[in-house]
Amino acid sequence: MEYSRIEKILASAFVLFLLLASINFLSELNNAIERPDFRDYESKYVSKELLENRSRLLVMFKHFRNLHEEAKTNLTKANELYIFKREEYRVALESGNAAEEIKNEYLRAKEEYEKAYLAFQVIERAYVDIEKQLNSVNQQIDQLREKAYQEYRNAYSAYRAKVLALKLIFVIPIFLASFLIFRRYKNIYAVSLIAYSSLLFAYLIVQAVWNTFQVIGLSLFGAVATVLALYYIRKEYFKLEKVYKRRIGQNRCYICGFPIKDDYLVCPNCEAKLREKCEKCGEMKPVHLEFCPYCGTSLAE
């Protein structure tokens, strides 16, 4: 049955609107079941006291890191001044001009350097100790969070399975009903329902594959779909009978594709038989045709 262009457009719009509504409904089903929250599992394994201890150590670590940098800077400056005054005092001694003021400046620089060095050592020991404690607590929290994540992942897999089951309960009856309707009413409306239910089912499959395997799964799904499509095209478009008819229509040998003329009986390239006598009218007709072009006799008769 032929349909007008406007009917086809309206049928396409019908499919599109149904798909949009159904996909929106499928999205709403994600909230029909309570989604697991990782924070609930984290609080089950990681205690509040442990997190507070880490926060306290983190504040202390930042404070002592600043003190460590400051003490390191002060030590560097004190060391440079001490070396300069020591060399100045040594040169004065060698030249015999070692005034008391130069000696006192050297001794003060040495004393300041020793104080800066002791202060740096104290702060560095405290800084390293705080860092070790913080690393130990972080490692403990990471181990506990890994346990929490494993339990959360199992719960989330169960959640996705339940949601998928709900979606299948919605999609499969529509898919089956559309085929039953199509078997009974082979019109444009039944075809539209088939297209809608098939696209909806394909969308659900692709979404499930993506949620489960993501890029790898989608790649495998695409590869399988491509192989099936190539097989179908190969089967339908490159069947020997269709290849033969296509080559005959292009005035080429149906076996090797060599250019031929209408009155050739045998291919000059591969010696394949090109024409045969019609059993009804006796005319020499091309081989592999469904009907004789001269009398219309079916080859199947």
Automatic annotation (TrEMBL):
Q: Does the keyword Cell inner membrane apply?
A: no
Residues in DZANK-type domain copies: 253-296
- What protein am I looking at? DZANK-type domain-containing protein
Q: Which residues form a coiled coil?
A: 99-147
Q: Name one Pfam family in it.
A: DZR
Q: Which keywords are on file for this protein?
A: Coiled coil, Membrane, Transmembrane, Transmembrane helix
Its transmembrane ranges are: 163-181, 188-206, 212-233
Q: Which organism is it from?
A: Thermococcus paralvinellae
